[in-house]
Amino acid sequence: MTVSRDLDIVVYGATGFVGRLTAAYLAENLPDGVAVGLAGRSRTKLEKLAADLGTDWRLIEANADDPASLAALAESTRVVITTVGPYAAYGLPLVQACAEAGTDYVDLTGEVLFHRESIDRFDDVARRTGARIVHSCGFDSVPSDLGVHALYRAAEADGNLPLTDTTFVLRSFRGGVSGGTIDSLRQQLDAIRKDSTARKIAARPYSLSPDPAREPDLGRQNDFAFVDGKSVAPEVSGRLAPFVMASYNTRIVRRSNALRDWAYGRRFRYREVMSVGSSPFSPVLAGLVGLGTGALAAGLSFPPTRFVLDKLLPAPGEGPSEKTRENGHFTVDLYASTESGARYTARFSAQGDPGYKATAVMLAESALSLALGGAALHAGGGVLTPAVAFGDVLSERLRAAGFEISARRLG
């Protein structure tokens, strides 16, 4: 099949909350010579968005229920950005269209079941056509994946690989929650509650591995651990609570290690936690954070409390105010030990609401990495992770956009 591609990037779901933010970022930061299109169900809404942005970008009508429209979309461009979720409900037809057309793809999913199905159904197709299908290109899971990539690069430069125990610590975080994120959580909880196979996939530490049978037997890696800071590194204080997205991000990082033929190390162990401060009350606060996360999941799983929460939580299409987005920020510190005894730390931080303003930058720059990265990117197709697909290319682009991504040896 001969495919004529006169666009470099198409934003699908452009009139949604995060889609608008991503399109706006591209409108303000688009390099010369990059051709962009806006796609969605409603041409009227697309026309209004284009007018608001002051662009003459091509407008493409496409719908998740219309495979022909998705095929035409994929065949018109080199890279597709999609913000249309929940991805388990709406995402697979577009993955299929891109994989079959040899079109690169980026999204924002934090849904392990969708990601696993994408691998099982379309990894071989994408490898054959050269399509790079890259999930989780926002706050889930770029800081996790590129943070470990930075540690890996620093230890590699010193000749101190392989890595062993590695911990992500969310040091600070300020931002809002959108209805789309809540809706994705609802749908995944529904699938897990109804399907024992889905429950097993969600529970496996290596559920996204390309070959789980080859994963090293390191014992159970607990993605919901309460951790004493000093057990992470002497520089870390207080009691650390489980990070709410640890059960997804950890699987992305472990997949990156496996896709790289376990370059981080066969004894590489990874976990994610968050700081609640170093006061005498930090153990209590850590417990409250853990209870709150569990209570939200339990509440959304139980029909009577779910009915109440649905009235209180943001609806799909809603998100934080501009003030909240502008005043948001996050800082992640990562710590790694190595088999040689050397220790390393990395920092990944940015201004802007993590799930929205900062995520729009990460998503747009991921697409620009694919459109402009050339030979420095991963050469083959397949269902990839951000670290494998982009590596240093995205890290450099994000630094240029104002993010801090750094790594150094400790001691």
TrEMBL record:
Where the record annotates domain Saccharopine dehydrogenase NADP binding, the positions are 9-127
Name of protein = Saccharopine dehydrogenase NADP-binding domain-containing protein
| Native organism | Rhodococcus rhodochrous
Biological process according to GO = glycolipid biosynthetic process
Q: Which GO terms describe its cellular component?
A: plasma membrane
Domain of life of the organism encoding this protein: Bacteria
Query: Which Pfam families does this chain map to?
Result: Sacchrp_dh_NADP
Leader peptide range in chain numbering: none
Q: Which InterPro entries does the UniProt entry name for this protein? A: NAD(P)-bd_dom_sf (IPR036291), Saccharopine_DH-like_oxidrdct (IPR051276), Sacchrp_dh_NADP-bd (IPR005097)
